[in-house]
């Protein structure tokens, strides 16, 4: 990309590739492209068109973390910048954890004449990069898993297994890039520690296509991921999948109207009578169901209350068993969680607990149903075994 005065390029090597970056910038200057002041932003480099010049570029390990949000704006200390300027080196920009200096004077001595001293300075960068790598691994992988407390499959099917896998692969991509940087810096550090000077004119053209393609792909994938994440979040906030419940809804499980014979009447409150139905590759049918109403039994008694059901039809029995365990773990995180006496409803797996209201968790084959039934009848209470049996029979 270019304008009349500026040219924008994707660098041919990563930010931690000291030798490749120096060689590339030097060749760009020889072709009439000088790196602009603070010329690295959002993965791109900005060059200014000039006459071809013989310019040397050098990367210097930053003694402190380089960040746009730092008090110094990610720039070197004024004392260090002035000292290097006295030797003929101009500070241009920062990239990654390195400061970039240049000089067009053939007489200007090297910024660092002792490779072993460079190796010591590089240790600070390696330490920060190692910390960044571990932080990336913890905050984007281990911490979310710990936050799920084992409920990985439940989270995956709720957000979409394809999006969950996409997120995991993206995190893995970032981690491997960071790990590659650590390995390169380790190799460079050994080279410097042995007294060998870095190769300032290393051939940077060999991996250029691969690196630029990978960088461009990462930018596009991250942009697409952010757009999809925003879309999914918007759908959740706007309740796109939630609909008002009607008597015509075809459901694979029993509802309150099936609990007892009598005159069923749904409460005239749309916000408590809703259904949300979605599908996922791991769980082809998922339903979040909420209804409230009453059944007049004909003898003056009334069954009244509300039923909340989370239903999952998994692709296999073992996935259903995994979902059953995930739902149990999720329930145990509630502050008022209390185990209730088990009820026998003739299912493959059952669990009963109190979470504000009595809850039954039932698995039958590849189907999992979690039901919360709260009763508000002044003159009748239906036993858990009875309504649990109706629900279990309905998913046989």
Q: How do the strands and helices of this protein lay out in sequence?
A:
Layout: E1 6-9, H1 18-30, E2 33-41, E3 44-49, E4 56-61, H2 78-86, E5 90-95, E6 98-103, H3 115-148, H4 152-159, H5 161-193, H6 208-237, E7 242-244, E8 263-266, E9 274-278, E10 285-296, E11 302-313, H7 317-332, E12 338-339, E13 349-355, E14 357-364, E15 367-375, H8 384-394
Antiparallel strand pairs: 1-3, 2-3, 4-6, 5-6, 7-9, 8-10, 9-10, 10-11, 11-15, 12-13, 13-14, 14-15
What does this structure look like?
This protein has 396 residues and is an alpha+beta fold. It folds into two domains: 6-236, no CATH class; 242-394, no CATH class. Helix content is 39%, strand content 25%. It has eight helices and 15 strands. The protein has helices at 18-30, 78-86, 115-148, 152-159, 161-193, 208-237, 317-332, 384-394; strands at residues 6-9, 33-41, 44-49, 56-61, 90-95, 98-103, 242-244, 263-266, 274-278, 285-296, 302-313, 338-339, 349-355, 357-364, 367-375. Strands 7, 8, 9, 10, 11, 12, 13, 14 and 15 form a nine-stranded antiparallel β-sheet that branches. Strands 1-3-2 form a three-stranded antiparallel β-sheet. A hairpin with a 2-residue loop joins strand 14 and strand 15. Helix 3 (115-148) packs antiparallel against helix 5, helix 4 (152-159) packs across helix 5 (161-193) and helix 5 packs antiparallel against helix 6. The radius of gyration is 32 Å and the shape is elongated. The mean pLDDT is 89.
């Amino acid at each position: 990309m270019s304008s009349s005065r500026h040219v924008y390029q994707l660098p041919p090597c990563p930010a931690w590739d000291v030798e490749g970056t120096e060689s590339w910038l030097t060749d760009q200057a020889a072709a009439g492209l000088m790196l602009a002041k603070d010329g690295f932003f959002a993965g791109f480099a900005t060059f200014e068109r000039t006459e071809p010049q013989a310019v040397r570029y050098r990367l210097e390990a930053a003694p402190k973390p380089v960040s746009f949000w730092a008090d110094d704006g990610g720039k070197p200390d004024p004392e260090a910048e002035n000292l290097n300027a006295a030797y003929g080196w101009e500070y241009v920009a920062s990239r990654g954890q390195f400061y970039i200096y240049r000089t067009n004077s053939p007489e200007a001595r090297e910024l660092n004449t002792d490779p072993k001293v460079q190796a010591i300075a590089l240790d600070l960068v390696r330490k920060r990069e190692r910390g960044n790598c571990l932080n990336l691994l913890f905050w984007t992988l281990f911490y979310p898993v710990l936050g799920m407390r084992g409920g990985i499959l439940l989270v995956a099917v709720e957000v979409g297994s394809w999006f969950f896998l996409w997120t995991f692969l993206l995190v893995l991509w970032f981690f491997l890039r960071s790990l590659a940087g650590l390995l390169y810096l380790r190799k460079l550090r050994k080279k410097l520690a042995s007294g060998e000077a870095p190769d300032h004119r290393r051939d940077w053209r060999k991996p250029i296509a691969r690196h630029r393609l990978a960088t461009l792909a990462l930018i596009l994938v991250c942009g697409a991921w952010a757009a999809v994440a925003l879309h999914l979040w918007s759908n959740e906030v706007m309740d796109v999948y939630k609909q008002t419940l009607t008597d015509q809804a075809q459901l694979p499980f029993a509802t309150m109207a099936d609990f007892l014979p009598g005159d069923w009447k749904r409460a005239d409150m749309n916000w408590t009578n809703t259904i949300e139905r979605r599908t996922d590759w791991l769980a082809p049918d998922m339903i979040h169901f909420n209804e409230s109403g009453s059944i007049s039994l004909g003898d003056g008694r009334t069954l009244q209350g509300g039923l909340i059901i989370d239903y999952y039809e998994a692709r296999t029995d073992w996935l259903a068993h995994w979902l059953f365990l995930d739902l149990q773990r999720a329930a145990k995180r509630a502050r008022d969680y209390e185990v209730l006496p088990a009820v026998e409803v003739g299912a493959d797996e059952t669990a009963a607990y109190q979470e504000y209201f009595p809850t039954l968790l039932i698995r039958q084959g590849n189907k999992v149903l979690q039901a919360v039934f709260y009763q508000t009848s002044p003159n009748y209470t239906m036993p858990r075994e009875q309504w649990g049996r109706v629900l279990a029979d309905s998913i046989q």
